[in-house]
Amino acid sequence: MKTLLTAINAKFIHTCPAVRYLKKYADARGSFDIDLLELTINNHPDLILDEIFRRRPQLLGFSCYIWNISLVRRLLPEVKKILPGCTVVLGGPEVSYESEALLRSMPAADYIIRGEGEEAFYHLLRSLTEGQTPDGPGLTFWRDGKAVSTPDSPPFDLASLPFPYEKDLSDAEGKIKYYESSRGCPFRCQYCLSSVQPGVRFVPLEKALKELQIFLDAKVPQVKFIDRTFNCDKQRALAIWTYLRDHDNGVTNFHFEIEAELLDGETVSFLSSLRPELFQLEIGVQSTNPATLAEVCRRGNFDRLSRLVKQIDGARVHRHLDLIAGLPHEDYRSFARSFNDVYRLEPEQFQLGFLKLLRGSGLYARRRELSLLCREEPPYEILSTDALEYAELLRLKGVEEMVERYYNSGRFRHTLRWLLRGEPSPFAFYERLGDRWIREGMHLMNRSLDDCRDFLYHACREDGHPELKKLAWYLKYDLCLHQRPRRLPDWMEDQNTPWRAAMVDFLADPAHRKAYLPEYAGEAEDPKQLYKLVHLEHFPFDPLTGAGGDCFFLFNYKRRDLIGNARAFRVPL
Q: Are 253 and 278 in contact (CB under 8 A)?
């Protein structure tokens, strides 16, 4: 039976481990003809339909998530028209709950696999191949015109979980590599589907380490662990972290979602021993409102969390902190406090998300009791709560956009740190900026980095900022970190001309080239040519310390951090 497993990802750089697991698990247990098709939601539906037809599957599977379920719904009737004999099976979190009602709403689908799919898909495929009626656990299907379900599947033994990629990683070239070393979560957060099934299961440690070595050997840029709470078992987490530290290839970065409440002095001390940017830690704060945290079943000792996050050296470990707007009992003022609390920890990334009422979650089940209204279509984003009106959530959308464009882009880090010293609070600053952004219609079309820079400067000028010249210099420093300055706005000074000869002489010194620019060795022997590849900039004060007096910074664009900023050196000139 020719089988096609289809993943429609959110972006081209993403991969879908789920369809890979299904294929590899089944292939290891029988002789099946299984192919994979990975496309994105940005592909036109006709293209997706054409690619499916070209492969002419007899069994077609879709991996369903909030970002692609609407597109899958649109495709299913057309699939049945062009491949009338094709059996369609759906799986994934978006169809694992209320599955009988979902099947009735998608009559072109034949089967739904609920929950973990490896074993269920294998049994379904084997039954259909052998001409038998599938009746294994975890299935919802049609029987005599009615949607019916078999019992849930038992928890899957992760010792049998296949490595999702080819050993040479050729099937995921140029894409983010995701890795799963555990399933489940010890916590019961009511907005999350991981709280539905209690307990945590782990891939055997020895197996996980061997598989992680594949990424290390290939020197992939980044591996993202999809474990819900990676550090729920401290000793196991430390064992994996120690292995990655001891086998560090100097290139690969590893991203983990952790629970900060589970950190302790030993763990923080270990994290301080790492190569800079070896790890990224994503920490879900979600709110600092005690009543809100209690309602969603999260522990909430923010003072302790704050202390531990501050102890993690941001220069070594990239810290990514999350907030969720629209949780129960958190009004606009309370969310502003939560925002300020988290922002003042100065994380490298600050994610402001909005509650999504996922089918199967505790908050979805209690949505009427808690006065939670959400969109009917995926991703089921919150529209209003017992404490927040839609107009307030809309205003927070403006705050979110400003945080993304200015803070999380990493392109204005020094400017923001200086500007916010004169602000009543971080939230007030981003709120005011977001209100202006909407008022001026900046949200109605795509905006470049230059547009964002100019908007920030003009907004500060119109607000009567007393130090516009200094602001322009901070903006220039952040610009130089990103790229060699080219066309500058008329409000941004260029004082390099008197120093140009001295700058070229500086680059001509072999000792300087060796100390600051080893990546350019042999590439540009002529210092005038090297001057065009790197950048030297004169500043009338030190943008890192604020100290007055002439200073010079050299920007090495072949040595960048995780967000793309060049390595900058203050140099004697």
A: yes
What would the 3-class secondary structure string for 130-183 be? CCCCCCCCCEEEEECCEEEECCCCCCCCHHHCCCCCCCCCHHHCCCCEEECCEE
Closest CA to 343 of 460, 434, 425, 255: 425
Q: Decide: 348 and 314 in contact? Cβ < 8 Å.
A: yes
Which of 96-100, 293-297, 391-395, 526-530 has the weakest average pLDDT?
526-530
3-state secondary structure 197-264: CEEEEECCHHHHHHHHHHHHHHCCCEEEECCCCHHHCHHHHHHHHHHHHHCCCCCCEEEEEECHHHCC
Neighbours of 333 (CB within 10 A): 10
Apex CA 423: angle with CA 420 and CA 425, to 5°? 90
For residue 139, give the nearest of 172, 161, 164, 113 by alpha carbon: 113
Distances (CA, A) of 343 to 256, 304, 453: 20, 16, 21
pLDDT(525) > 80: no
Do residues 485 and 479 make contact, with C-beta atoms less than 8 angstroms apart? yes
161 backbone dihedrals φ, ψ, rounded to 5° = -70, 120
Can you say whether the dihedral through the CA atoms of 270, 272, 278, 283 is positive or negative?
positive
Q: What's the CA gap between 305 and 353, in Å, rounded?
A: 20
DSSP structure string for 397-438:
HHHHHHIIIIIITSSSHHHHHHHGGGSS-HHHHHHHHHHHHH
State how far Cα 229 lies from the chain centre: 15
Distances (CA, A) of 56 to 53, 60, 108: 5, 9, 17
Where on the phi/psi map is residue 570: left (φ > 0), alpha (ψ -120 to 50), or beta?
beta
- Model-level pTM? 0.93
Percent of the chain with pLDDT over 90: 91
Quick: pLDDT tens for 105-155: 999 999 999 999 999 999 999 999 999 999 899 999 999 999 999 999 999
For residue 407, give the nearest of 289, 321, 527, 287 by alpha carbon. 321
